[in-house]
Amino acid sequence: MLSFVLIIAASLFFTGIVVRTKSICSGRKGPGILQPLRDVVRLFGKGAVYSPTTGWVFKAAPIVYFASVLAAVSVVPFGKSGGILSFEGDFVFFAYVLALGKFFSIIGALDTGSSFEGMGASREALYSMLAEPAFFMIIGSLALVTGYTSFEEMFAALHLGNPMSYALAGLASIVLLILAMIENSRMPVDDPKTHLELTMVHEVMILDNSGFDLGLILSAGYVKFAIYTALIVNLFIGTIPYGYSIPSFFAIQFLAAVIIGITESFMARFRMSHNPQFIFSLTSVSLLVLFGVLLLSGNFR
Amino acid sequence: MDTLRMHNGDSVAFSTIPVMDYHCFSSLIVEKLSSGTASVRHCVNYFGYPLDEELRLVIAIADDAMHDIEVFSCRVPECAAIQSVAVQVPALSRFEREISENHNITFEGHPWMKPLRTTPDDYPFYSIDDEELHEVGVGPIHAGVIEPGHFRFICSGEKVLNLEIMLGYQHRGIERLFLKKKRLIERSVLAESIAGDTAVSHSVAFASLYESLCGFKASEAALWARTLASELERIAIHTGDLSAICGDVAYQLGSAVYGRLRTPIINFMQQWCGNRLGKSCIRPFYTPYPFTAEIAQILLTTLTVYERDFVEMGKKISHFPSVLSRLEHTGIVTLDQVSEIGAVGMTARASGLERDIRSSHPYLLYGNIDHRPILKHHGDVYSRTQIRKEEVLQSVGYIRDMLENVPDFGIETAITRGVAGAAADKADTSANAAAAVGANSAAVNLGHAVAPGMFAISLAEGWRGEICHCAITDSQGEIALYKIKDPSFHNWTALELAVRGNEISDFPICNKSFNLSYCGHDL
């Protein structure tokens, strides 16, 4: 339960911090940290407009997407305190409940019949497919090293006595951070600020969503960021007391947001055809983690 | 057959333009413009002029080697069907479409006879019938605050096989307005509105054309002010474009820095002439806003601060891998392609074709400057970015040189304020009456009369490329025809060619690297 509250709390600020960091880097004042939240609140107060070409899929998609993200949050633990749900193999549930949400947002986009949204949907599907092995390689390695298959037991058992394991956790957090950027359509894979439909990935899929539905999609996006960072936090906090772990949770969330903001400020976006290479390279970093784990556990002969 | 040779900014009696039959005319065109001559000659304007129940087709071909413009014409009956030369000279394709659209002439054998400035619902788009391909239509309403135009892509996955651009949504009938609006002030404002981002260069072309029609010779000081304004416009718009290019590859630093750098330049324009885009800065016959020593000092200070940051940012984008990977090898137009389609200006120069009116047909004070056009050879987005960067620095250099001896506007100002001012006041009160009777009254033209029966042509190198204005006056000295050609007219084809084989997600950056004008094309 604690993790759920913390993740929701962090998600309220995360995107605002990213945007603010970008503004400061470009010499502007920028909107307040809470602006994304205000946007969502405003959207929740509105009705939605539906195109006559869309059917029930388009209406269901935002709800399923939002629900899938909340379901994913429920299995993420926080140190000693487990998630709302916890069972054997819940990391598989985590990955595929998110994938279910993404599947619905993809078919929702296809439902509009717009050629833009079809393009965005195909890109999003490709990138998710390429990002999946990296996630499983990382979490699979953790399962291997701890001998458990639920997030809660895995992180609780992850006693990092060995300097080598800190290195592995470092690698894993880089992978998770970049995965968060890909899953949330941030730079360098996607540019959330662009107005150019032809270059968009995620943004173009939600062009037809409005009002309440758009609010759901945006808020699910904010939460998603915080989830991945919460996984990173879990790699390090182990069983330290809440007095230290809760502040460090927020510190790491803040740091991740600032890193993303700075990355977006000082580099250009990738060419679309380079994205698959980039995303797939994450899998090779995850392989390093896997080999490291095999070495540590002495299974590598 | 002989052609009439004239210089940039000349006017001649319309009757001296050689007239031939269409067969001779077309074979002469093919001879002059056939492939391989692109580096020497190109067509700057080709239009129809209805005269005595017939259509006169007039073509103006600029000869860069001889530094003059060849003009010749032919007579064709109204609604005639004539043989197209677009296959032999693809650069004329758009001109023939325009003549066909305006004058109901049928060009037989034209490979791409489609509407140019009208937007019918059943526009005959090129299409390929294939299960594996898909079409993407973009516009006419776009996501940004830009002008309308429809883009139809045929894609195989992410790769663009073909792009077709349908324009005409911005058609305002500006050439006809030039005939209808008879006051000089109205015409000046019209010239500024042909393309909002090229207000200065279009005004320069209009002013020299109008002055030459009136047999007026602008003072050195006026020419100086016009040259300065043209170069300032180039700096401002190029800088804004660099910002937009960085914005399109999501390079926030470049976008923010170039965006900030554009502001002091356009703010200076406002300090000088009261308008950030240089509107009202240039008027035929007089200089409304004389340049003073104090303004010169402000400009020098502005440029010093500007140049330091501009150079630093320029170094950054030319060495930053993540930006380079987006710009290099993207949107390539080859030298052969730009020569064939008759591309002009920066677009042509970025592909290695030396085409710059400032050096080939000098006007204003460019004859004294010894302008050397900057050439790039790859024809990709990066070349078009680099050429902007270098042209800005070149222009800054020219302005510094010019500021060393600011001409004396004193006497002219007195005349301006006295004669022209009074005339302008008078014009304001009496011009409506004058316009009603259609008289070519002196009051309308600040004391200058347009000569009857003339043909005038003026070329100017705007930041985008060559601008051509032509006018024909009738026996009463009224303007009977006003033809405008914005560089976008040729260069839209270059964009269509540039995106072929590229990813569709690179279209915006290709588009931005040309930054063509919709209203300049649509008129």
Record keyword descriptors for this entry.
heterodimer; A: 301 residues; mainly alpha; B: alpha+beta; Beta Polymerase, domain 2; 2 domains; five-stranded mixed sheet; four-stranded antiparallel sheet; 18 helices; 14 strands; 45% helix; 17% strand
Mind explaining what this structure looks like?
The complex is a heterodimer of chains A (301) and B (523). Chain A is an all-alpha fold and 301 residues long. Chain A has one domain. Helix content of chain A is 71%, strand content 0%. In chain A, helix 3 packs parallel to helix 9. By secondary structure, chain B is α+β, with helices and mostly antiparallel strands. Chain B has two domains: 4-108, 2-Layer Sandwich (Beta Polymerase, domain 2); 119-523, Cytochrome-c3 Hydrogenase, chain B (Orthogonal Bundle). Helix content of chain B is 45%, strand content 17%. The longest helix of chain B is centred in the middle third of the chain and has 29 residues, at 220-248. Chain B is globular and about 60 Å long. Chains A and B meet through helix 5 and helix 10 of A and strand 9, helix 7 and helix 9 of B.
Total number of helical segments of chain A? 11
Please identify the oligomeric state: heterodimer
The fold-level CATH name of the largest domain in chain B is Cytochrome-c3 Hydrogenase, chain B
- How many helices of chain B does DSSP assign? 18
| Name of the CATH class of the largest domain in chain B | Mainly Alpha
Number of strands of chain A: 0
Radius of gyration of chain A, in Å, reads: 19 Å
Estimated helix fraction of chain B: 40-55%
**Strand share of the residues of chain B?**
15-25%
Q: What coarse outline of chain A follows from CA principal-axis ratios? A: globular
The CA-CA distance between the termini of chain B, in Å, is: 34 Å
Main β sheet profile of chain B: 5 strands, mixed
Helix content of chain A: over 70%
Q: How confident overall, as mean pLDDT of chain B?
A: 87
What amount of the residues of chain A lies in strands? under 5%
Total domains of chain B, how many?
2
CATH superfamily of the largest domain in chain B: Cytochrome-c3 Hydrogenase, chain B
